[in-house]
Amino acid sequence: MLQKSLVLLCLAISALAEIRISTDFDGGNAEVVKLDPSALTLRIMPKLHEGRGWPCWWYFRLDGLTPGQPFRLELQAQSKPFREKQFLASPWCQPKHAWLSSDGETWSPSDAGTLSDDKVMTYILTPMTDCLRVAWGPPFVSADAEKLLAELAEKLPESKRFMLSKTRGGHAVNGIRIGDEKAPHQVWIGARHHAWEAGGSQVGRGFIRWYASDEAKALRAKTCLHYIPIMDVDNVKLGAGGKDAEPRDHNRDWADIPIYPEIAAAQRMITEIHQKHGLDVYIDLHNPGPSDPIFFFGPFTFERMTGIQQRNYSRWMELAATNITTPRPVEPKYRFATYVRTEEERGRMSSGWVRNHAGDFTISVTLETGWNNPMMSIEGYSNIGAGLGHALAAYLAENPRRK
Q1: Is the pLDDT of residue 4 over 50?
Q2: Three-state SS for 187?
Q3: How far apart are CA 190 and CA 251, in angstroms?
């Protein structure tokens, strides 16, 4: 009996010792803290990319696994400050469930992890193949964006793909325009001003696939939509967080002189759209904090609004609450980013800048989709995106420009 146990232990140690950990692909990120073959345990933390924002996103591939053999994945927060003396709190990088895939396409949640007193999250993973991809959440990287845009262009030949700009790193920020440039209604929807917020792109994919469906044919006939699946392409490729990057991140760069070429290009394009045709709707897709639900950030001045502006923001919230219901309902009232203390910084946020540079009939909002739940699968995010599409169709059907 003892001999048999020793043989099994040796096999287990040998199996884990041969495991190869890789992050050399778009969105890859992990720093190995320790690999303990005798305990069948791997500990990682998100790798810090200095100056590139929060170290919260992680995504890696394991090869050389033994199918059916459980092992422990331990996750701790990055031990170095991401900016000056600022350390990122561990809940941002410790979802309740790790997300697993054997093919990089289909993702499912692990069993819920357990959090120790010293703030280490432990997941027990049982691979079914010798290769496993493990991530903070279902990833959406540049290849996914390219595949999606190609799919849309093929399905809707009248659409027009465009490059918003090249990034500082030389990568293309791509989008697609669907509809007549002179359509009665003009809409801009985009995601990933913060690179780690992959759920925003997942919601965007669900929305745009619904928008390209037969169900949305009437909406497309009267609307020109501009859609950007990823704004912070450089940090998405690196697997960096992007949020609170130095000297500022993409969502705080909507200034008179932006740092990032893609932000400057978006400002020029949105300004031109509004000057020529009027902009009806701007929606920025994000993920919020670990314990947050699904909600919209609205304008700080909402309670003081009057006339067409107050009517449109109120009506949008009503229709969003009616239509975004699965897998979880959106909150029926706006939240406000009160943590942003100054008017100057509020004006540098994407939704704030658009609000300040568009018309009284324009609504400019941020959809924050809570992520820390196994229902936030690719399908779950897609359902939220489809609900967003239904809300948009109902909203524009009422003609928000009417007096």
Answers
A1: no
A2: strand
A3: 12
Of 80, 110, 135, which marks where a domain is finished?
135
Q: How far apart are CA 193 and CA 351, in angstroms?
A: 11
Note whether 228 and 175 are within 8 A (CB). yes
Position 402 in a domain? no
CATH number of the domain residue 72 falls in: 2.60.40.3120
pLDDT in tens, 153-211: 999 999 999 999 999 999 999 999 999 999 999 999 999 999 999 999 999 999 999 99
Residues 155 and 19 reside in one and the same domain: no
Smallest Cα–Cα separation from 95: which of 53, 139, 136, 46? 136
Residue 43 in any domain: the answer is: yes
Distance of CA 89 to the CA centre of its chain: 19
3-state secondary structure of 327: coil
Residues 127, 194 within the same domain: no
Averaged pLDDT of the chain: 94
Q: Which of 119, 135, 151 is the last residue of a domain?
A: 135
Q: Can you tell me the distance from the alpha carbon of 367 to that of 1, in angstroms, rounded to the nearest whole number?
A: 59
Do both 131 and 236 map to the same domain? no
Q: Yes or no: say if 330 and 321 are a contact pair by the CB < 8 Å rule.
A: yes
- What is the SS3 string spanning 75-136? ECCCCCCCECCECCCHHHHCCCCCEEECCCCCCEECCCCEECCCCCEEEEECCCCCEEEEEC
Distance CA(301)–CA(340), nearest Å, equals 14
Give per-residue burial for 38-74: e unless 16+ CB within 10 Å, then b. Answer: eebebbbbbbbbeebbbbbbbbbbbeebbeeeebebb
The neighbour count for residue 246, using CB atoms within 10 Å, is 13
- In the chain, the number of structural domains is 2
Q: What residues make up the domain containing 223?
A: 142-397
Q: Do residues 295 and 372 both lie within one domain?
A: yes
- Please tell me the distance from the alpha carbon of residue 108 to that of residue 305, in angstroms, as a whole number: 44
Q: pLDDT of 68-78, one tens digit each? A: 999 899 999 99
Q: Indicate if the pLDDT at residue 16 is higher than 70.
A: no
Q: Is it the case that residue 5 has pLDDT exceeding 90?
A: no
Average pLDDT over residues 328-334: 98
